[in-house]
Automatic annotation (TrEMBL):
Family annotation (InterPro entries): NSL2 (IPR026316), Znf_KANL2-like (IPR025927)
Function: Non-catalytic component of the NSL histone acetyltransferase complex, a multiprotein complex that mediates histone H4 acetylation at 'Lys-5'- and 'Lys-8' (H4K5ac and H4K8ac) at transcription start sites and promotes transcription initiation. Required for NSL complex stability and for transcription of intraciliary transport genes in both ciliated and non-ciliated cells by regulating histone H4 acetylation at 'Lys-5'- and 'Lys-12' (H4K5ac and H4K12ac). This is necessary for cilium assembly in ciliated cells and for organization of the microtubule cytoskeleton in non-ciliated cells.
Protein name: KAT8 regulatory NSL complex subunit 2
Compartments it resides in: Mitochondrion; Nucleus
GO CC annotation terms, alphabetical: mitochondrion; NSL complex; nucleus
Chief place where the protein resides: mitochondrion
Length: 173
């Protein structure tokens, strides 16, 4: 293999063509110039992202934490992707349109953020009003009292129902 790559002397035209193709195939997937530089940088970024220490440093950045303050203490929850607030405080962001606070009921007010859906006033699962029941149970038929209080001596017992004689069966044509 390596002696073929040293020089084309003594090779026939077909062998030279095959050698040229072989050299092209060897460098077919290799990157050169700017493409090679960008590929190496991408590989380095991926290596840093997969390291455990780099992953922890990435999640504790200030841009990943919620910007809301509760009693002069900054929220320590992780913010939602592409936002600056966590799920609890997302309604404080005036520019967002995906969440609305739950209205709750008159007795129990609720400000839990709820995703906006097709309904006019979205509610959390606790305050969700269920649609009316579509299944109506059947009415139980009332049994007249005279049937319930019927005497039991009108009924035959199992012993009385047994035939006492065995009668031959006759078939007629």
């Amino acid at each position: 293999g390596s002696s073929l790559l040293t020089g084309p002397e003594g090779l026939m035209a077909k062998e030279r063509e095959n050698l040229k193709r072989l050299k092209c195939l060897r460098r077919y997937r290799q990157r050169y110039g700017v493409e090679a530089l960008l590929h190496r940088q991408l590989k380095e970024r991926r290596m840093l992202a997969t390291d455990g220490a780099a992953q922890q440093a990435h999640t504790t950045r200030s841009s990943q934490r919620c910007l809301a303050f509760v009693d002069d203490v900054r929220c320590s929850n992780q913010s939602l992707p592409m936002t600056r607030h966590c799920l609890t405080h997302i309604c404080q962001d005036t520019n967002q349109t995906l969440f609305k606070p739950c209205q709750g009921s008159e007795e129990v007010p609720c400000n839990k953020p709820v995703p906006v859906s097709l309904s006019e006033n979205p509610c959390c699962p606790l305050h969700l009003r269920l649609p009316p029941q579509m299944y109506v149970p059947e009415q139980v038929l009332a049994v007249p009292e005279e049937l319930e209080a019927a005497p039991t001596d009108l009924y035959l017992s199992a012993a009385e129902l047994q035939p006492t004689e065995s009668l031959p069966l006759e078939f007629s044509d």
